[in-house]
Amino acid sequence: MSEVLVLVPGAADAVRSSTFGLLTAARRLGEPSVVLVGPDDPEAVRALGEYGAAKVYVADSPELAEYGSVATAEVLVDLARRLAPAAVLLASTRLSKDVAGIVAVRLGSGVLTDAVDVRPGSRGPVVTQSVFAGTHLVDSEAVRGPVVITLRPNAVDPEPAPVPPAVERVEVTVGEAARRVRVVSRTAKASSGRPDLSEASVVVAGGRGVGSAEGFAVVERLADLLGAAVGATRPVTDEKWCSHEYQIGQTGRTVAPQLYLATGISGAIQHRAGMQGSRTIVAINKDPKAPILAIADLGVVGDHHVVLPRLVEEIERRTQ
Ligand SMILES: Cc1cc2nc3c(=O)[nH]c(=O)nc-3n(C[C@H](O)[C@H](O)[C@H](O)COP(=O)(O)OP(=O)(O)OC[C@H]3O[C@@H](n4cnc5c(N)ncnc54)[C@H](O)[C@@H]3O)c2cc1C
Fold first, then answer.
1. What is the pTM of this model?
2. Which of 200, 280, 284 is nearest to 248 (CA)?
3. Which domain covers residue 100, as residue numbers?
C-alpha cells in the first residue's frame, strides 16, 4: 500500500483532533506516514500511532522554525521524491496552505485546498470541496501527482486505528530559496482560554441582533459555560462588539462544529459560507422568516435579550 504523507507542524499539533481527522482521511488513501516537525516527542508519536500513523518521520532542526514555510516544504518535497506517496495531506491552516502551495510547485503536482472529504478514485484520490458559499460540492482529481491536499478541520471524524509507529529521523538541509526569508521574532497571542474557533466542537455566535457589546457579552458567557468558541457576523466585528478574529463567513473563518448556536444572526449567504458545515445548528431569532431558521435543526423564535439570559441561568443552575 502506498504511503500518504501527513504534515504535523509541531508536537503540540500531534494531539489535536484535526490531526486525528487528517490521519483518518489519510487511511482512506493509503498508509499514513507523519512528517513531524520538531523533536522526537514520545507522547506525540504515541498519539499519532493511535490514529494509524505507521511511520513517523521526525524533522528536528532549529532552522525549520527560523526559515518557516519554505524550509518545511523542502522537507516534504525531499520525502515525497524519495517515497512517491499516493498523496500529501495537510490541515487547512494558513501555515499549512502556504506549505502546500510550495510543495505542489516543487513537485509539479496538483494542489486541492479546503477539502471536506477525500476518497480513493480509479486514477488517484478524489477530493470534495464545498464551493460558492457552501451551496455546491465539487469532486476533483489532480491530473499530476502526488496530489497535495489540505483538509478542513472537523471535516472528517477521527476514528482510532492503533499501530505501533516506526520512527525515522530525517536529515534537514535548508536550501538557498528557504534562506531568503528568515523569521526574526515571534510573539504569542494572549490566550482567551477558549478553544480555537476553527477546531471547536461547539461554537456560540452572535449577530447584529444582539444589539450592543453588552448583548454580545451574554454570547461570551454562554460560550464559556459550554466550553465553546465564540463567533460573530461581520456587522458585529465592524461595530467592535468583539474582535475581528471571531468573524465567521466568506471573508472570515470557516467552522464545522458539532453544535453551532447562532443568536441574532439573519443567515446571509456570506455568513452561511463559513458555518454551513456545522453538524447541528440551533438558531435564536425574533423574526420567524429569518433565513437562518430555514437551515437550523432547532429554531427558537424569540428575543436574544430574553432567551440567552434564561439559557445561561438554566445552565448555571444545572451545573452548580
Ligand atoms: C463581499 C462580502 C463579504 C462578506 N463576508 C461576510 C462574512 O465573512 N461574515 C459575515 O457574517 N458577513 C459577511 N458579509 C455581510 C453579510 O452580507 C451580512 O450583512 C451579515 O452576515 C449580516 O449579519 P447579521 O446576521 O449579524 O445581521 P443582520 O442581517 O442585520 O441580521 C440580524 C438578525 O438579528 C435578528 N434580530 C434582531 N434583533 C433581535 C433580537 N433582539 N433577538 C433575536 N434576533 C434579533 C433579526 O431578525 C435579523 O435576522 C459579507 C458581505 C459582503 C458583501
1. 0.82
2. 200
3. 3-180
